[in-house]
Specification:
five-stranded parallel beta sheet; 2 domains; Rossmann fold; 5 strands
């Protein structure tokens, strides 16, 4: 589907082309879910003459072209490294394969290591005349000032709530878009993921409540949860635990969004909930692949089913030990 709220971006770019004021480097900045990557795909297609859409679209595959390079962190890493950028810089210095312009997209550019960013500087300072570099950044403040200052920044903001709701309702009528939009700050594409997470979160809440009421098996629940992204699981758990602490301390009416039943919360006290939250936060801080997800979840959910009675002030350390015992193999 077209992203109509990016019309201003399309019009502004066409104006730059008409006035022959196309920059050599563009920084697309804004929150997650407003369409920056869709805009980068559209811009690459327009520049290379392979674009067919009037507006950026979602979802849309990355265009295929011999003179297009799309740089992302490797699947097993969280950042874009110096070797990736060096390879890109080397290719930028070569003649176009098809006799036209060359385009490179770096996203998210704010994940470049310092050495990678420094390696890109010379290209930004002395850009090839036929090249366009597109940087996509979710967190502009993470970019080195030397990179930021050498790009033409284009800020991309969410549409109005009414426009976002109209677009989302066309995508999936009847979904809880208002709740999702509120949760993600009004970004429509992020709201799509939020709705999916709402469905998943509701299922996880049912599991937690069933465990707390002795109606489910920690082994079976952990097997289901282990198939999801650990970052999502632990983020959801941390959010629910914070709300549970508020509910136990100040009353449920102060904890909007809490999905844990009162019958389960009555078995737990604030100290043990804080203890459990410390364990979850310790897990969130661990790098992916450094522990056995299935065994870790199984241990956590057994504790939950037992009302966190075994959780003591030493639990955060025990939690790390659980991770180590569970999977650094």
């Amino acid at each position: 589907m077209e992203l109509p709220w990016l019309k201003y971006f399309v019009d502004a770019w066409h104006d730059r082309v008409t006035r022959a004021r196309v920059p050599h480097a563009v920084l697309l900045a804004g929150p997650v879910g407003v369409g920056k990557r869709a805009a980068a795909r559209w811009l690459a297609g327009e520049t290379l003459g392979i674009g067919h859409a009037a507006f950026p679209e979602h979802p849309q595959a990355i265009p295929e072209h011999a003179d297009l390079r799309w740089l992302r962190p490797p699947e097993d890493k969280a950042s874009i490294g110096i070797e990736q950028v060096r390879e890109l810089v080397g290719e930028f210095g070569l003649t176009s394969y098809e006799g036209g312009r060359k385009v490179a997209v770096i996203e998210p550019a704010d994940t470049m290591t310092i050495n990678a960013a420094n390696s890109l500087l010379k290209t930004l300072e002395e850009p090839p005349g036929d090249a366009l570099l597109i940087l996509v950044a979710d967190r502009v403040g993470k970019l080195p000032a030397t990179i930021f200052s050498r790009c033409q920044r284009i800020d991309m903001a969410p549409p109005t709530e009414a426009d976002a709701m109209a677009w989302l309702d066309r995508l999936q009528p009847g979904a809880p878009w208002a709740q999702a939009l509120h949760a993600v700050g009004g970004a429509p594409l992020a709201a799509i993921e939020a709705v999916e997470e709402l469905d998943t979160g509701a299922a996880m809440a049912r599991d937690l409540n069933a465990l707390g009421q002795g109606q489910a098996s920690a082994v079976e629940v952990s097997a289901r949860w282990s198939k999801m992204a650990p970052a999502f699981v632990f983020e959801w758990l941390a959010r629910q635990l914070k709300l549970a602490i508020i509910a136990v301390s100040a009353g449920r009416e102060s904890a909007a969004g809490l999905a844990i039943d009162d019958s389960v919360l009555r078995r737990m006290d604030t100290r043990n909930l804080f203890c459990y939250l410390d364990i979850i936060n310790g897990l969130r801080a661990q790098p992916p692949g450094s522990y056995n997800v299935l065994l870790t979840l199984e241990g956590l959910l057994i504790d939950w089913a037992e009302g966190l009675q075994a959780c003591t002030n030493d639990a955060p350390i025990d939690g790390i030990n659980l991770m180590l015992a569970g999977g650094r193999q």
